[in-house]
Amino acid sequence: MPFNPQTIPQFSVIKIPVQLIGYTELKRFVVISHIPGHVYALKTTSQTETFDHDPQQLKGVVVYEAAECPMFEKRTVIDPRNQFPISYSDLIQHDQDGCYEHLGILPADFKQRLIDAVTASRLIEPNRKKRLLLQLA
Fold first, then answer.
1. Cβ–Cβ under 8 Å, residues 35 and 85
2. Among residues 48, 39, 109, 36, which one has the least CA distance to residue 76?
3. Residue 135: predicted pLDDT
4. What's the pLDDT at 109?
5. Residue 96 burial (CB < 10 Å; 0-12/13-18/19+)?
6. pTM surpassing 0.85?
């Protein structure tokens, strides 16, 4: 059966290639919702130093310690400001190229942790905050 991106469950962690300046790197994203023709996702990062040195910024993100859940071997931050629509057509192409990976679904408490982070953030623009909270309702 062909891959259907519409069936990716909410709060799934996926890994896909991202084109950066001069090279491609595999990045992890958390699927928040589906919008027409796209998944709406948050990019994760294991580069946590910026957040670790700024308690105010740390309040506005979800942190998973290394191996706290199976999708993250390193300490990982999910920053609600890093919002990306990823087209279904791109996901299908990545799957056909053998570059799409579904790593699993985040623990049940992730939704509340994300709502708390979005609500606490003073850095997310109000319109983005509202849109994200509506998608989590």
1. yes
2. 48
3. 87
4. 96
5. exposed
6. yes
- Contact between 13 and 44 under an 8 Å Cβ cutoff? The reply is yes
Per the listing, tokens 């309702």 go with: 137
Q: Which two tokens stand for residue 60?
A: 């506005």
Q: What span, in angstroms and rounded, lies between the C-alpha atoms of 60 and 62?
A: 7
Which residue's entry shows tokens 């059966």?
A: 1
The 3 state secondary structure assigned to the chain is CCCCHHHCCCCEEEEEEEEECCEEEEEEEEEEEEECCEEEEEEEECCCHHHHCCHHHHHCCEEECCCCCCCCCCCEEEEEEEEEEEEHHHHHHHHHCCCCEEEEECCCCHHHHHHHHHHHCCCCCHHHHHHHHHHHC
Strands 62-64 and 38-45: unpaired
- Cβ proximity of 127 and 136 under 8 Å: no
